[in-house]
Structure formats: structure tokens, C-alpha cells
Amino acid sequence: MADPSSYRPRPGQIPDSPGVYKFRDEHRRVIYVGKAKSLRQRLANYFQDLAGLHPRTRTMVTTAASVEWTVVSTEVEALQLEYSWIKEYDPRFNVKYRDDKSYPYLAVTMNEEFPRVQVMRGHKKKGVRYFGPYGHAWAIRDTVDLLLRVFPVRTCSAGVFKNAARTGRPCLLGYIGKCSAPCVERISPEDHRELADDFCDFMAGRTGTYLRRLEKQMMEAADEMEYERAARLRDDIEALKKAMEKNAVVLTDATDADLIAVAEDELEAAVQIFHVRGGRVRGQRGWVTDKVEAVTTGDLVEHALQQLYGEETGDAVPKEVLVPALPDPVDPVQQWLTDRRGSNVSLRIPQRGDKRALMETVERNAQQALALHKTKRASDLTTRSRALEEIAEALDLDSAPLRIECYDISHLQGDDVVASMVVFEDGLQRKSEYRRFQIKGFEGQDDVRSMHEVITRRFRRYLAEKERTGEWADGEDTDGENSLTEDDGRPKRFAYPPQLVVVDGGQPQVAAARRALDELGIDDIAVCGLAKRLEEVWVPGEDDPVVLPRTSEGLYLLQRVRDEAHRFAITYQRTKRAKRFRAGPLDEVPGLGETRKQALIKHFGSVRKLRSATIDQICEVPGVGRRTAETITAALAAAAPAAPAVNTATGEIMEEEDGEPGTTAGPSGEPVSAGTPDERRGQER
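C-alpha cells predicted for UvrABC system protein C:
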């Protein structure tokens, strides 16, 4: 634990202006990001007597080893920069809402020629209209199933659509009237887009006009004695009304608003959001967060707004946002929301009427969510703490291993040897810091040598970054050898050391890991191994394993860490093997990326035709220069067969199409099976 006075800046050094500040620990990892109207006044609060600080704030300033800041012009800029840095650095001491799932949206892909209605999760895409979020995907599908009777918009995937267009037969929905079948040109692109627009208008809450139009058409059909059409319109109206009943009217003035409520205690807070569109509740979502710093309800609301609208623009930000408490100050937040929407946004506390009554409902949901979370979480916190304490006691560590890294080796009979590194912090997965390695030092199967190589490469990076002052970096590293250096002060992931290294294996693997650390001069990181056969825990230099009770929470945590490392390694190894099996002659050309490979195949039609092309003809492909063309020609010539194979049964020359031997070209140029007609029929069967 650091003494805050050791890195406290002089008062005259801190500007008295708006800005954003970062606290870093001894490894230069950003652990907290904050903003302030006056940096001088705000930072002074952190360097007062430790006894007067909130316990979590005290932990943060004693964990930190330095502080730095960036001056901005306005508080709105400070809010935007704070949000960007929190997303970029993921600081451990900032308020982070734990969302246990990605909420599904009803999406209409208006950016396609034939818009498609589907369920979508994750990041929003440009040109797609979203409705929701919904609590469950089945709720979306129920609604869509009702609406497809009236708005038969396409719902199929691109593959199904192309297959139907190729065969000239629509899918089942096209036959039962729940799709207008644009794949077989039953409807024009313009009419189908108009149908999708009507669907979006109905989902956006503009229902009254459409229903009145249908009712008028139904009456006209009845007057003209077109009873079948009138009955169909009647059923359409009933389907729409049934869909509308799923979302009761809560605000009679067709308001578009988001209502945010907070339930909190000293340790945690639960946030609930109701999305109201057209006066109806269209979606609900919620988060729970640890209060790792001294925050007010207004601060929690501000963080919730950043979480909700940080990546949203346009109509995704409603005209009205109702909250239980206003951020302090409120003007920058309101201006930020207005900028996101592109028009004025009202941020206020509801005082009376329907909106106040609905806010009370949202607050009750937040209280119930917090109570439910605490019921489930209480045992989790206790269990994880007990597990870490049991591991520390069993391995004779000075303190609980808050960061554990586990390594596993995976291969298939000595081929495609890879390794995985998974990270657990405070007993929970830290997937953003998982890493994968390719074994490069030797060929074949040797788990002990592989483990030594992986540990050496990982901690050599740690030492290099530790020694490099002011040149920390970060980035993806799939093989452990890239050197990505940035000037913004961020540490590489490999620069943050664990308290415990776990290897999948017994004495030999543990000895190899310990030897690698000793060769690098690292003696402050503990090592152990977990053998699969009897789940024994091995430590370096001991002839007998440490045996933890089968009911031990510490053993259970080590098993989870080991199994996760095994899963991650197996997944990577299978990916590499599949990629190797799919490899073709062009994959051997150095410097030829996927884009140019696709361009070459598209231009020539096949590798066989590309192999017979001249250098000048290859240079005609966009992006391919003469030197690259010469390299391609040489690589394909080296990979070409020495002589064509001859089918002894038919006397035909058997051609290799894209590296697949054993085929002969048919009349249309497509490869067909070699052999007699009877043999070919047998092969096809």
C-alpha cells in the first residue's frame, strides 16, 4: 500500500479548471478515472487525512502510485472524456454496472434491399431500426409472430433468402402467408420496404391511425359484399389489438421517455430502467454495481446515463429522461444528452401524476432487484473470499492471491501445439485479459518444454515493460511476441503480474514453470499445479502434493481456473487445426492478405486458372503489384502437381480444382467424381 503523500502533486501544479484525472497503480495500470469542474479542488479531497476518507476511497488512494490529469474547455467535454476513458481502461475502482446478459432488441434492417425483422443483441449498427430492449427474446418472437399476419416482412437469414431465390421456392412462412416472399419476387423491393416502414411505425407507437384505416377498409369490404376480405381484415385487426395488449398504456399522452430508478445501501446499488415509447412500456432492463467509491444517488444516475446513452444517438435517446435525483451539476449532463439526440432532452425528477406513479413502480422493481441480488450474492462473496483464503493458507502465501493466472497446453498428436493463459481477479473471470500462444521453440509434443517456453515469454514481456519507463503499451497478442507500443501511458496486459501462477499438470510442469521464473530472476510470484487424475495440488520442490479436501472452496476455485484454461486452449487449438485444413496454395504466399486473395479468386474464378495466368494478367487485379504477382506465380508453381493424373477406367485427365485431388472436370467445368458411371453413383450415395 502506497502513501498518498509520496505522489501528491503540489497545489500550484494542479490547474483550477475543468478536466479529467487518472489514478494509476505501481504497474502504471489505470485504477480510477474521474472528472471535475475544478481539478485543484477535487484532487485536494483525495489527499486529506486517510481517516476522513470513505473506506473504498482510502483503498483506492493507497493502491495508487501516481495521478495525472487532462485539462478540457467545458464540463461537457469532461463528461465525454471521462466516459471514453472508463470504456477504454475499465478501471477497477470506478462504478461499473454488472449486466448479467445482453438485452435483446427487435431490429429491422432498413439498410438492406429487403429489410429483415430479427432479434439482435450487442452493439447497434447504422441503418438498423431498434425497438426495445426486451427482457426475453421469446417476448419479441411472440410479438413478431402476431404482427407478421398484418405486416408479412422478411424474417429469414441471408442464406435462406439466397437459397429460396436460387430454387424459386419460398420458405414455409411464404406459403402460410406470414412472409410476402420477396425472394421469389412476389413483391417488389419498393412495396416490401413500404411494408417494413408500416411495421416500424406500428412498433414506434403510431397505432391508432393504422387501426382506423384497417377498420375503414373492413367496413368498405363488407359493404361491397367482399366478405372473405372483410373477415381477413377483421382477423388482422384482432391480431394487432392482441399485440398491443402485451404493452399496456402507462402514460396517456403517448410520451417517449426513459425512467431510471435507484435502490442502494452502503455497499451496492441496483438500477432499473423502463423504456416507454408511445405511452407504452416497450422494454425493461437493470444493473447492479458495487459502490467502490463514495458516490451519491446523483452520481449513480450520471453513471447510468453514460452506460445507457454513451453509444446511442438520434431517437435512441428519448425526449424525456426521468430520474430519482439529478447529477451535480446537471447542466453538462443535460447538454451531453441533447448533443447525443440532436435535439433538446428534458432531464428531470417527476413530481406528480402518472409519471410519478410509474416512477414508484420502477423504484419498487429496483428494490426487489437489489434484495434478490443480495440474497444470491451474499454467499458468493463469502465463498470467494473463503476460497482465496484457503488457497493462501494451503500454499503458504503472504496474502490472498487476488490475481491468478492459469496456463494450459493443447495439441492433437503433437500438431498445432498452442497454450492458453486465463486470468481470474477476486475469484472472477477477467476475460479481457485472456491470451493465447503458439509454441514456436521446437516441433512436436513436449508439454514440459512448452510450459517453460510460455511462462518465459509471458514474464519476459512483464520484465521488459516493467523496465521501460514511460513506454507502456497495450493491445491484442495472439502469439505472445508482438510489441505494440503506444504513447498514451497505458500498460500492456502482460505488464500486470499475478500473485499466483497455476499450471495444468503435475510435478514436471510445475518445475518447468518455476525454472522459467527463476531464470528470469522473478521470485515474488507463487507457482502451483493441479493434476487432473487425483486433483492434487503440486508446489515446486516438494515430493508430495498438497491435498485439499474435496469439499474445499479453494480446490473448487482452482478447478474452475484450470478447466477454463483447458477450454480456452482447446478452442484455440481447434480453430488453428480447422484453419490449416482449409488452407490452400495462396495461403503460402507471404504478405498476401485475405482481401487480395478473395480479389484474385473472384477475378480468375479458380486457383487453377490463376496458376495458368501470366504475371501481366495477375497485375490487372486491383491492389496486386508486379512484385506480388511474381511471388504468387512462384508460389503456385512450387505447389503445382508434377504431372496430371489419368483415370485408368475412362482415360480422362483428372484435374485438381483448388487443391482437391481426385476430380475430373465435367462438361460445365465443374469437378465431378472420377470413375465409371456406376462407381460415381455409388460415391454420390
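The longest helix spans residues 353-394.
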